[in-house]
Design goal:
This protein has 460 residues and is α+β, with helices and mostly antiparallel strands. It has three domains: 20-105, Integrase, DNA-binding domain (Double Stranded RNA Binding Domain, 2-Layer Sandwich); 139-255; 270-459, Intergrase catalytic core (hpI Integrase, Chain A), CATH 1.10.443.10. 43% of the residues lie in helices and 10% in strands.
Length: 460
């Protein structure tokens, strides 16, 4: 028999002493999907050649191990011939043969078990690493994200005043005081920023609240309400829900020590109005004096009126456009006395009630109001009480409840006389009637026809 040429394809019917040349010449013939070339030195070792395809125009070649197990042929791929050497493939084939013959195990199943064990081990390690990260996650880590994403329900963003309060409550302190000597103390929420989420428990919050309440119970209570908002936000996010106790701030020991939440009812009584008005009139700070009067005459919230700009005062058409808690803005009539009062104020900047502070506008009139109250021998009347005073005095003047509510910026409702929005001109007679009643009760007379800017007020 003639010896085959070195360029001929290897004979597949008999085992061969595998060489690089034989493997190179091995081809999968047309009409077949794969063929195997057996090795003589490592029983069970095969070289598999697959048919050419679009993805692999020359086909693929790989070392495989083949054996009989439980009367079935099993194959286990060892590796690509371009990666594995012949001797390395023989060594792996012999190892697999020992597994099959001595233990009767299927190498493929062993490999699946090993891979499953590795996957389980990796998953456990990943879970532990994640648990360690979560365990170390602190309130301070999430607080900036809460300030960005934790806006109230049905609102596009935090109210500027509340957002500023959140910053103050969580401030580290240690900066020079704007008023007085010394440095500011840390905000009530600041100590909580160092706690891991899992450490925010009822006991931890109780100890924190008791400590902060010594400096001020009302401030501590407000900080608690704000922090409970943070807990609700965490509980609403799947990634933090299991790490936080949403109800930690509702511990009985905390709730029992909260200051009374009785709604304030302070307001100026009719008999007190002359004394209060005179006390305000005597203030050295004319801007603060005008501001306090305007609060009583409009029923506006203090921040709404403090932010009033000259651009939103329409003297010709007698209208004021101010910021609103419910809507973006609301427009109300500019009554005669208030128009003349505003016209007397100097135009220092864009704000009507301007000041030399960084904000450029009046911000805190409690000290001025306290002087006026002392002069009037009154006590317990808050700035917000002036807003309630407008409501009560407006009712006494005979203005409809709906008109009063609209001027004050209350959320529309169907209570009382049946609230319905009115135009500015429709509101004007009611608000002028309220203003006239307030001035009458305060003992104030003025010339409604005088040129704005030359207001002269004379006691009755």
């Amino acid at each position: 028999m003639a010896r085959p040429k070195k360029t001929d394809a290897p004979e597949l019917g008999n085992a061969q002493d595998l060489t690089a040349g034989l493997i190179e010449r091995l081809k999968c013939p047309p009409g077949k999907t794969q063929v195997f070339l057996r090795d003589t030195k490592a029983p069970g070792l095969r070289v598999r050649a697959t048919a050419a395809s679009t993805k692999n125009p020359k086909g693929l070649k790989a070392f495989v191990y083949e054996a009989k197990l439980n009367r079935q042929t099993i194959r286990r791929t060892i590796g690509d011939v371009r990666v594995w050497g012949i001797e390395a493939a023989r060594t792996e084939a012999r190892r697999l043969a020992v597994v099959v013959r001595s233990d009767g195990d299927d190498p493929r199943e062993l490999e699946r078990q090993q891979n499953a064990a590795k996957a389980t081990e990796l998953a456990a390690a990943t879970a532990k690493a994640q648990a360690d990260i979560e365990q170390a996650l602190t309130v301070g880590d999430l607080w900036p994200r809460y300030l960005t994403e934790g806006k109230p329900k049905r609102k596009d963003a935090w109210k500027p005043g509340y957002r500023a309060s959140l910053d103050v409550m969580a401030a580290p302190g240690g900066v020079p005081k704007k008023r007085g000597q010394g440095l500011t103390r840390p905000g009530p929420i600041y100590p909580l920023l160092a706690l891991a989420l899992g450490e925010v428990t009822e006991d931890a919050l109780q100890l924190w609240f008791e400590r902060e309440a010594k400096a001020g119970r009302h401030q501590a209570a407000r900080a608690l309400m704000m922090f409970r908002g943070f807990l609700r936000w965490c509980a609403g996010r799947p990634e933090y829900r299991k790490l936080i106790d949403r109800d930690a701030g509702k511990a009985p020991a905390i709730l029992e020590n909260l200051p009374s939440n009785t709604k304030r009812t302070d307001a100026i009584e009719a008999a007190q109005l002359p004394g209060w008005w005179q006390g305000v009139e005597q203030l050295n700070n004319r801007t603060a004096s005008a501001y306090l009067k305007a609060l009583v005459l409009t029923g506006a919230r203090k921040e709404e009126l403090a932010g009033l700009t000259w651009a939103n005062v329409d003297f010709p058409w007698r209208k004021l456009t101010i910021a609103d808690k419910v809507d973006q803005t609301r427009t109300i009539p500019l009554t005669p006395y208030l128009a003349q009062l505003l016209a007397t104020l100097p135009r220092i900047n864009a704000f009507v009630f301007a000041s030399a502070s960084k904000a450029g506008r009046i911000s805190d009139t409690r000290a001025s109001h306290a002087k006026a109250l002392q002069s009037a021998a009154m006590d317990g009347l808050t700035i917000h009480g002036l807003r309630r005073s407008f409501s009560l005095l407006g009712e006494a003047a005979g203005a409809p409840a709906g008109a009063i509510a609209q001027v004050m910026g209350h959320k529309p409702s169907a209570t009382a006389e049946g609230y319905r929005p009115r135009s500015v001109d429709a509101l004007r007679p009611y608000l002028e009637k309220v203003e006239a009643h307030i001035l009458e009760q305060a003992g104030v007379r003025f010339d409604a026809k005088a040129t704005p800017g030359v207001l002269r007020v004379v006691g009755a």
